């Protein structure tokens, strides 16, 4: 008996938002346009590719870690300030969780498809099937923590996602980095993302000269989330990422600039990183 793989369609509409985070000194203006483009050529079959574009204006304050949250299912970008102290982080995280619950709606496809898409990530599958699967899981992860929990109940999912950072496809790069960004926004999963080799693979990816702005944004925002933890800040600073981050400050894309600035601001909170950042040219000698 043969079986067929269900076809999943995403209906995405542009969203335009302006709002101010409650009880903080940070005003956030977010304009999001979600676009769909078709990529194809020769005998390659056409497949959907998705990009999220987020433009956010915010002000950095000293002694605070800047935390880049992923897009929610409503395509909202939330930036939460996590205190450098022990208790502030939990309070800030609780505020963002409440916001997510209030604005959460149904994901693009049912929970029953998660297992199918994770299986499609397998290394022995067709590259186009793997790409379709990672795009689907990325969009599903934007539904919030429950959706991310559903994905991570499958052992090896993070490693398979990281392996797609080596893909030849920009769409797969963007979706894999986007899923890692979503996962690393959750405190519980931040360590496992870093320990699975995400920092090293993102460093290798960012060293490529032909990356799209969308891939850079998702990749650097993953580092931004990981840099909340001091142990990950040290690891990031000691990798080959610093030159790429500094170069990203000169990008025309404001979202890439902001993400790179957020990572560098967090790295500077760790005193042991200062000499490394001075040598890299990020901090001027005084």
From TrEMBL:
<dbReference type="InterPro" id="IPR016024">
    <property type="entry name" value="ARM-type_fold"/>
</dbReference>
<feature type="repeat" description="ARM">
    <location>
        <begin position="197"/>
        <end position="241"/>
    </location>
</feature>
<protein>
    <submittedName>
        <fullName>Uncharacterized protein LOC105634087</fullName>
    </submittedName>
</protein>
<dbReference type="Pfam" id="PF00514">
    <property type="entry name" value="Arm"/>
</dbReference>
<dbReference type="InterPro" id="IPR000225">
    <property type="entry name" value="Armadillo"/>
</dbReference>
<dbReference type="InterPro" id="IPR011989">
    <property type="entry name" value="ARM-like"/>
</dbReference>
<keyword id="KW-0677">Repeat</keyword>
<feature type="repeat" description="ARM">
    <location>
        <begin position="240"/>
        <end position="282"/>
    </location>
</feature>
<feature type="region of interest" description="Disordered">
    <location>
        <begin position="84"/>
        <end position="106"/>
    </location>
</feature>
